[in-house]
Amino acid sequence: MIRIQSWLVELLLRALDPSERDAVDGDLNELRVPPTRAIRELLDLLARRHVAAWMDWRPWAALIIVVLPLGFALSVISRFWALGTAIHVWLYVENWTSAYLASPGARSDLFGAVGTHLIECVALMLWAWTIGFAVASVSRRAKWETFALFALVVFAGTIGSTTAGVLNPANAAVFSLTSYRVGFPIVFRTVFILLPALHGTLKAVRESTIGSIHAAILAITVTLVTAALAVGIRVAVTFGWWSLSAEGPMMSALAHLRRSWQFWVLPVVMTLPAAYVLYEASWRSPRTRRIT
Amino acid sequence: MLGEFEYLLLSAAARLGEEAYGAAIRQEIERNTRCSCSVGALYTTLDRLEKKGFVKTWMGDATPERGGRPKRMVRVTAKGTKEAAAFYRTVVRASDGLSWQT
User: Fold this and answer.
1) Which of A82, A183, A281, B47 could lock A188 by a disulfide, CB 3.0 to 4.6 Å apart?
2) Residues A187, A209: one domain?
3) Are residues A47 and A74 in the same domain?
């Protein structure tokens, strides 16, 4: 029992900021606070710290400007791309035949699909990493709550909807399988969004900014990849969130969506976290960097 | 205007002088008030006071009885002393002519 309690104390201490952890641990040691009371006191301190973090405007700004809108956009785009990739995985992996390489037309289709999906995966990883890094830099003390909310929006953003691809009877052979319809998007989002965003968050925990050269390379890469996929992003948004309850194709809703200005600026919006990372790296003085 | 716990913390830190750090301040507050003082209340109040410029804190030496962990040392600033004195005068003025009997 004592061992479990001591382990819990260690775990709670690790949740504190490194700057505070040692002093608090030392105080608890010096005053010989029993483990049960130490657990209670550490939970109290952590709760106070998290409440204090949300009294600041920064976590709210990160949540409203980045986490909710970009998380939802990534949710819709990633599911659409995951299901598109699933079709090709089913076709080229489960039903592989050398004929795919034999004819020039089939070969071109294969390489085209692989190239498109690769660049989509790279784009998702870059967007997720920059979002993770930017959000954790802005809301340092509330970084794990904002990360959890981001993950929730990414995974729950498409609940109650489907895609035009899933509804298309031509894809029934693929999407009648739960592993492709449900499992594949979960794994896809975990690998290409959640893990890069987690890596970006952890990077921001260690360093508040990255070097200006790295930031410039990152911003240029994100911009180029986003520009290359601008049409793909719009297609994903157009056909990636179809109401389950709608009886016919939602043509009127689509026509409205395609006329909206948000539809056209979405690719630019996806590059904003990278622009923020570049701004932070370029304009914040080394002195400010050390203090924060 | 200071809060009650902020005043208690400033008084404890001022009384301890060079020896003011987290655990010592906590013991001093508990001795004076005969109430328990949690690490959460202590450290969040210290942060608030530091942000207001009433105390200055820094990491001190590590000692064996603390498991080799450093102390968070505390010094009351001139601004903090002025604020505590103002709080004390207010309490004395507010209590003038009163005789609390329990």
Assistant:
1) A82
2) yes
3) no
Confidence tier at A6 by pLDDT (50, 70, 90) = confident
Q: Which two tokens stand for residue B48?
A: 């608030």
Q: Nearest-CA distance from B60 to chain A in Å?
A: 9
How confident is the model over A72-94, as a mean pLDDT? 95
Tell me which of A37, A53, A69 is where a domain ends: A53
Residue with tokens 């039903």: A95
Locate tokens 């992003």: which residue?
A233
Q: What is the pTM of this model?
A: 0.80
Q: A23, B62: Cβ pair inside 8 Å?
A: no
Residues in A closer than 8 angstroms to B63, CB to CB, are 26, 30
Q: Which residue of A lies nearest to B61 if distances are taken between CA atoms?
A: A23
Number of domains in chain A: 2
Render pLDDT for A29-59 as a digit per residue (tens, 0 to 9).
999 999 999 999 999 999 999 998 899 999 9
Do A26 and A170 share a domain, yes or no? no
Q: Are residues A20 and A95 in the same domain?
A: no
Instruction: Please indicate, yes or no, whether residues A274 and A141 belong to a single structural domain of this protein.
Output: yes
User: A44 and A68: one domain?
Assistant: no
Radius of gyration of chain A (CA): 23
Q: Which residues lie below 8 Å from residue A214, measured CB to CB, with a gap of 6+?
A: A281
Same domain, A37 and A117: no
Helix (H, G, I), strand (E, B) or coil at B69: coil
Taking each helix axis from N to C end, the angle separating A230-239 and A212-228, rounded to the nearest 10 degrees, works out to: 60
Phi then psi dihedrals of residue A207, to 5 deg: -135, 130
Residue A191, token pair as written in the block: 């690998």
Q: pLDDT (tens digit, 9 = 90+) per residue, A170-203?
A: 999 999 999 999 999 999 999 999 999 999 999 9
Looking at the structure, tell me whether residues A26 and A120 fall in a common domain.
Answer: no
Q: By residue range, what is the domain housing residue A42?
A: 2-53
Query: Taking the CB of residue A164, how many other CB atoms lie within 10 A of it?
Result: 18
